[in-house]
């Protein structure tokens, strides 16, 4: 058993159907899986309990409850009082939530909800078995009006996608994992990202070796967004970074605080990597047909995404671009506009929404939000395990777009999917701070792109 985050390598995720198949095959050779699960829960419970009070074990009707009952027996064998039932004992030292796991199949009924509320009202920490009760393993959404908010979750046998995206991170608390000594014997449903290797930078390289980035955006009043993207691309190690500020005055400075940035236009830089849309406003719509047809690689963000959502002819141009030439970075509302849904419809199944969008538009898609999802046609989707609330700040998306552009400019042979996985994970790790973070400070915290 070990802590799951931060990841040190890319890890396999398995949805409910795959987890069931792996479990069924493993049970043939290892019929004692539930004993192993219960023992693992009891061991972690011993380490986590606060004080000398009894451990309250809340067991449901299925095998998740079975794990809980075995854990209670193991705790009793270790000399710790374990109270199994739906009513709290006096001053519990820990709550074990073994009400519902992988088998959650419908919104919890009133009785279940009342038990979940009682667990939540209890002052003891909550250790969830496999999944916080009420949370759907495939999507990370509560099945009904509430899911348990655990302090710790011990994930068993397989890592489930819903623990890492949507509401998963907010409900699971600290994540632990025990594979029950079973090696998965089929391909994962998705990848949980680990840190990417830094690309090689030759000692004989010069600025021309590290690519050109052209940031198009920053309409009057919103230049900061484009400047943040350009600064991020520069900090990432791109050889030359140019800004095309939309509707700007000819004498307007590119970026007074960043003298390395230059002015440029798509016509002057036909081979540059384009980062388009940050702070662009509606003006980007006029520039988009040429950008979509001329620039060989594009990172498309913000207002450019909204313009594409509103115009089927732009969607056609996007679909006509070569494979792996375009990377979209929508937040859930932008993704909803592109898919013709509302935000709740996207958030209900983030993996599916990102895959649907990638398939429809023939692009790599980074669906931002807690547990960003990266999806591309013909690639296994990935979920980003890094990041936190400090990233919920103005400009952090612009920094991501610029960072992705800077990474991609330096690695012209890399697929959009690979760049998205590397950049999103680095951005998330840089944003893991307590308290608040300004987007400019986020740039300073990102590792350089080498
Ligand atoms: N089978 C095994 O040997 C193993 C099982 N494991 C555990 O087993 C769990 C999966 O067990 P199950 O498949 O039995 O599923 P669960 O125990 O998660 O739940 C299934 C039961 O809950 C009921 N139920 C579903 N949704 C409900 C709702 N909203 N309100 C009320 N009742 C509801 C179902 O009718 C069924 O009786 C895993 O999450 C894990 O904890 C693991 O320990 C690995 C080994």
TrEMBL record:
**Cofactor(s) for this UniProt protein:** Mg(2+); K(+)
What's in the keyword line of the UniProt record? ATP-binding, Isomerase, Lyase, Metal-binding, Multifunctional enzyme, NAD, NADP, Nucleotide-binding, Potassium
- Gene3D superfamilies tied to this protein: 3.40.1190.20, YjeF N-terminal domain
Task: List the EC numbers from the record.
Answer: 4.2.1.136, 5.1.99.6
- Where along this sequence does the record place binding of AMP? 368-372, 397
For this chain's record, the cofactor binding note is: Binds 1 potassium ion per subunit.
Which stretches make up the YjeF C-terminal domain?
A: 190-450
Q: Which InterPro entries match?
A: Carbohydrate_kinase_pred_CS, CARKD, Nnr, Ribokinase-like, YjeF_N_dom, YjeF_N_dom_sf
Domain called YjeF N-terminal: residue spans: 19-188
What SUPFAM superfamilies would the database entry show?
Answer: Ribokinase-like (SSF53613), YjeF N-terminal domain-like (SSF64153)
Explain the purpose of this protein: Catalyzes the epimerization of the S- and R-forms of NAD(P)HX, a damaged form of NAD(P)H that is a result of enzymatic or heat-dependent hydration. This is a prerequisite for the S-specific NAD(P)H-hydrate dehydratase to allow the repair of both epimers of NAD(P)HX. Catalyzes the dehydration of the S-form of NAD(P)HX at the expense of ADP, which is converted to AMP. Together with NAD(P)HX epimerase, which catalyzes the epimerization of the S- and R-forms, the enzyme allows the repair of both epimers of NAD(P)HX, a damaged form of NAD(P)H that is a result of enzymatic or heat-dependent hydration.
Family annotation (HAMAP family): NADHX_dehydratase, NADHX_epimerase
Member of which family? Belongs to the NnrE/AIBP family. In the N-terminal section; belongs to the NnrE/AIBP family.
Q: How does it assemble?
A: Homotetramer.
What this protein is called in its record is Bifunctional NAD(P)H-hydrate repair enzyme
